Amino acid sequence: MAGALAKTTIAPLDRTKINFQINQAPYSARQALNFLVKSYQREGLISLWRGNSATMARIIPYAAIQFSAHEQWKQVLGVDQDKVRKTSSWRRFLSGSLAGVTSQSLTYPLDMARARMAVTQKEQYSSISHMFVRIWREEGPRTLYRGYSATILGVIPYAGASFYTYETLKAIHMEYWGTSGTNPLEKLLFGAVAGLIGQTSSYPLDIVRRRMQTSPIANSQYQTIRGTLIKVYMEEGLKNGLFKGLSMNWIKGPVAVGISFSTFDTMQYYLREALNCAAL
């Protein structure tokens, strides 16, 4: 529920970001707005959520696995298990990173599907199943994991920084205010800060994975992480290349992560309350 709500909220911005990430067109707020307007005029309002079905197919299992894995990795690493002794920073970071690696590894082909559907017209891929069949037949099964290594390298700092920041802010709040409870607005704010830090820490690798995932469509050669980094930097530079669209990520990232974390914590609380009531 946390993942679905967060991603649906920012889906139009996500589609816009991906379209700028995969080509050499210069990015600006005006150009991003023009893309949204033209998409609406050409294909209607629903087109702004094109690829969201693929996003939901990915994000629901991805978020479920990530949050569940994070709870398990916290137990394995002893994060926040001892109320007397403080948890070290590296354990918090590592538990988040491992949760991200676990979920990405198990759902990566669905991430490929989302990227492909976000940057193509309906005539090319009419559905998720159609897209998988075409990729399997025309490009081979290995294509479903194109860009996987870049994604994992990116998710380590992203998930690590996000979970670390969110959990640390909650711990500071508890220590300062003397209570373990945080209201939904505070959770939303803590998640937004976590999203801002996490997105910024791994953004160039996000550019790399999108280029590698969609290179057959754009008729571009992005085969390796190193080669893609060099090619993008040499041809487009830092601001308009490896960090293209980062300003949009500073908007959508905090919103998405804030909604995701706050929804997860809030729903977890009410589900536990419901289970306790049922047990009584």
TrEMBL record:
Solcar repeats lie at residues 1-76, 87-172, 182-270. One of its GO terms (biological process) is transmembrane transport. It is a multi-pass membrane protein. It is found in: Membrane. Keywords: Membrane, Repeat, Transmembrane, Transport. The keyword Cell inner membrane does not apply. GO terms for cellular component: membrane. It holds the Pfam family Mito_carr. InterPro entries: MCP (IPR002067), MCP_dom_sf (IPR023395), MCP_transmembrane (IPR018108). PROSITE patterns: SOLCAR (PS50920). The keyword Plastid does not apply. Its main location: membrane. Belongs to the mitochondrial carrier (TC 2.A.29) family. This is Mitochondrial coenzyme A transporter SLC25A42. It comes from Cloeon dipterum.
